[in-house]
Amino acid sequence: MTTDGQLYISGEWTAGSAGATFETIDPATGEVLGTAIEATEDDVDAAVEAARRAFADPAWHGMTPSARGRLLWKIADLVEAHADELAELESKDQGQSVGFARGTMAGAADMLRYFAGWCTKITGTVSPVSIPGMLHYTRREPVGVCALITPWNFPLAIAVWKLAPALAAGNTVVLKPAEQTPLTTTRLVQLCEEAGVPAGVVNLVTGGPQVGRRLVEHDGVDKVSFTGSTEVGREIVRASAGNLKRVSLELGGKAPSIVMKDADLDDAVMGNLIGGLINSGQACAAYSRFYVDASRADEFTEKLAGAMSGMTVGPGTSPESQVGPMVSAEHLEKVSGYVSRGVDEGAEIVAGGRRAEGDLASGFFFEPTLFRGVTHEMTIAREEIFGPVLPVISYDDPEELVTRANDTPYGLVACVWTSDVAKGHRLAHQIRAGEVYVNTLPMLDPAAPWGGFKASGWGREMAADALDAYTETKGVWVNLGG
To answer: Domain Aldehyde dehydrogenase: where (predicted)?
Structure first.
């Protein structure tokens, strides 16, 4: 029996209660790549109930930390063994290059192994209470049933960011991938089943926003972890109020990249080119507004435009491609609209600015686009475009930089380019962002916490910090007498 495009509930693959399906599209061609099940409310209820049963089942809650660690390690081995297959599937479903996707698969395996090691290290404390004859200690216990709702830009990687710490802490989960990109998450769940994850511990429901909404509102869900837009994040906060479920959010960004007068300009150009066009700009960590010292802005813009103009736009499955498609026709329209608005507001296009034509016209491609003459108040400098559109904003007074960088509702990522390390540290301390990079590309590591300030989210993923999102602290008092 094939399990492609099915739901996974209580250890069984199923076409769901209604059997309705939706199509997933190859963004490089516009053609139908496959189908997935549109889960109903009854399907979501069944998945949550399965997770609740599994949470209470001794096969899971009685599993030793060491055994949980071995289980996560086995999933990691399977992800690694199927990395080429997963990368190609990710490329076809999402659009990113196969080579880049292979890197995210390696990162997913590393993430699983990192949290496999934490299974035996989730400890409590003995508290030095001042009440005579009393022993007080704490336990870190799993939250319960966790709804893990993931985005379309890095489908498998972000699913693993959430799944690994959730399972390491002993929770059960219901995974809900973005409807645009369900395929690699489905394959990941198959690998969890192959690894021997007990029935009901990992469940999968697919479908549109109504499926996620039902999960968020469900009284049987104890925690929601969501990565996506800030607008949807706010809706989740409101919808989760019914049973006051715990919520962690990794939301939007508008990352400033500051190029100081003393920066190595060639490094800054290359770093911002790669950092701005990572996954074709479809990344919340992408450098998306460049503040460049006025004395160097023209040189920076010319070099960046030259580098962008030489980039190859094409399908992720082609080894020559450097910029892939937008994930959907709808998102392509959104990106195109921002470019038009930039022109209407007075910015000048230096490179790109159009949808790809010719052989690529059937896909959702947009040329990497560079604007100059951008002011801090323009829409393309303030709103998250989530595409290959880069605005250059020149500045005269370095004292204004921190104010400009912080003048945004977002606070996920920022970058500083300077040859003065002390200056880099000072700016990093002053900018209100969860991650600040100095003279480097945006990057991740399982041991480094990830998350944002302000409207970029609540809580942290990765590192030991992630375990805070998936555990509760219980205090135990024992009367010792005397």
So the answer is: 13-475
Please tell me the distance from the alpha carbon of residue 382 to that of residue 88, in angstroms, as a whole number: 34
Between CA 351 and CA 370 the distance in angstroms is 5
Active site residue 250: yes
pLDDT tops 70 at residue 4: no
The percentage of the chain sitting over the pLDDT mark of 70, rounded to a whole number, equals 99
- Of the residues 38, 193, 217, 250, which is catalytic? 250
Provide the 3-class DSSP secondary structure of residue 457.
strand
Contact yes or no for 54/74 (Cβ under 8 A) = no
In angstroms, the first-to-last Cα distance of the chain is 66
Tokens matching residue 382: 């303030």
469, two tokens: 């999102």
For residue 110, give every residue at least 6 positions away whose Cβ sits within 8 Å of its Cβ, in sequence order, or none: 76, 446
Which residues share a beta bridge with 395?
293
Domain 255-445 in CATH 3.40.309.10? The answer is yes
Q: Tokens 């809706």 — which residue? A: 235
Average confidence score pLDDT of the chain: 96
Q: Whole-angstrom Cα distance, residue 123 to residue 141?
A: 9
Question: If you ran DSSP here, which 8-state letter would residue 180 be given?
Answer: T
Q: How far apart are CA 118 and CA 459, in angstroms?
A: 19
39 in Cβ contact with 206 (< 8 Å): yes
- With respect to CATH, is domain 7-251+455-477 assigned 2.60.40.10? no
Give the helix/strand (H/E) hosting 96.
none
